[in-house]
Amino acid sequence: MNAQLLSHRLTRVAHYVPKDSVVADIGSDHAYLPCFLVLTGVINKAIAGEVVRGPFESAQKQVQRELLTNQIDVRLASGLDAIELNDGITTVTIAGMGGPLICSILEQGKEKLTNVERLILQPNVHSKAIRDWAVLNQWRIVEEEILKENDKIYEIIVLEKSPTSVSWSSQQLLMGPELLKKQNGIFQEKWMRESSQWKKIVASMESTVQTIEIIEKKQELVKKIQLVEEVLQRENS
């Protein structure tokens, strides 16, 4: 992977970046995504934010190598602290982290999202956390995608601000309102795998001391299994 040829996962993230938007890529690593977006003419300006010095320096070198220092500003900062309101950021991308960490970044830097029109988020795990955050903060899901790369399954969630409050069912929050409409083979594979794993956990809980915490956790997992199996059975019937 390099700035000219992204991984399949990052290529799909790039697909949702609006043309001529001003992008902040948080946790940019080698800055491959913003470099690719500028090199392909999708955008003219970006910020690459990194909190770890090693990846920050790698991003700086990559931007210099591509001769894009006038268009991509690499900043060493935690989360959305990389953004200033006068940067005019309209799109934020955060890819390759867990859903709860992405939510923490968004929550801690909420005041930096005032003029942001689109969030393109690619959680590695626990996508539901992002949908929960979106509901609480009045962002609507405009697109979702599920994909597989190197035997790992990833989701992409694209959010835009909603003028009205947002609500989804428990099933939609867990599995994705847009993904539920499509239900491709990767979607089926993910949820069959998840359901099977949850069943094993529930079975193992049966042989442990039934504390309140164990009982509550078991009930939570059983509910999730029911939500998933309802969808899978309906699709396969």
UniProtKB/TrEMBL annotation:
Organism: Planococcus versutus
UniProt key word Acetylation: no
Keywords: Methyltransferase, Transferase
Classification via Pfam families: TrmK (PF04816)
One function term, GO molecular function aspect: tRNA (adenine(22)-N1)-methyltransferase activity
Keyword match Methyltransferase: yes
Lineage: Bacteria, Bacillati, Bacillota, Bacilli, Bacillales
InterPro entries: SAM-dependent_MTases_sf (IPR029063), TrmK (IPR006901)
Protein name per UniProt: SAM-dependent methyltransferase
Gene Ontology biological process: methylation
